[in-house]
Amino acid sequence: MKIILLGYMGSGKSTIGNLLTKELNLPLVDLDHTIEKEIGMTISDFFEVSGELKFRRLENEVLNSVLAANDQMILSTGGGTPCYGNNLQLMKSALNAKVFYLKSSIKTLTERLLSEKDTRPLIQSIDDADLPEFIGKHLFERSNFYLQAHHVVNIDQKSVEMIVEEIRELL
Questions:
Q1: Labelling 99: which of 1, 11, 28, 110 has CA 20 to 30 A away?
Q2: Is residue 132 part of a domain?
Q3: Which residue in 54, 50, 86 sits closest to 67, CA to CA?
Q4: Residue 62: CB atoms within 10 Å
């Protein structure tokens, strides 16, 4: 079984993936970390050096190889991964794959991301007051992709344990 987690940054893909790993005894693959290992630099640095287009091509190649190389895993994707190329179709059509969108409100995402701004290059330079609008614009652009997941799990006002249990029930 392949469990694939989609969602905007701050939606808890890594946290939920880590707990699912323990509960289901499946390996966790973080797509962003896998890409960084392969290129030997951070994704932010790669963006600066090579641009987004080259990154999205690389992301697609790594996604393809991760899906092909792992029969069983929990895959945590980058927030933009399903929105480019044929990535979403690759994930949805992978053998024994279940794709979950961790859906959250702008309010919840803003609260979470305000405390993580220093570790999130995409939002580091955005003024705190402008963050909700930035998130809202991105969600508007990406929600059409996210909502095509096999399952949509609303994460607002739920503990990580509650979210994991909901995912387990949907498997």
A1: 110
A2: no
A3: 86
A4: 19
What phi and psi values does residue 71 have, to the nearest 5 degrees? -75, -30
- Length of the chain equals 171
Q: Encoding tokens for residue 134? A: 């930035």
CB 8 within 8 A of CB 138: yes
Q: What is the number of domains present in the chain?
A: 1
> Would you say residue 113 lies in a domain?
no
E strand map for the chain: 2-6, 28-30, 73-76, 97-103, 151-154
pTM above 0.90, yes or no: yes
pLDDT in tens, 25-83: 999 999 999 999 999 999 888 988 998 899 999 999 999 999 999 999 999 999 999 99
Burial of 82 (0-12, 13-18, 19+ CB in 10 A): buried
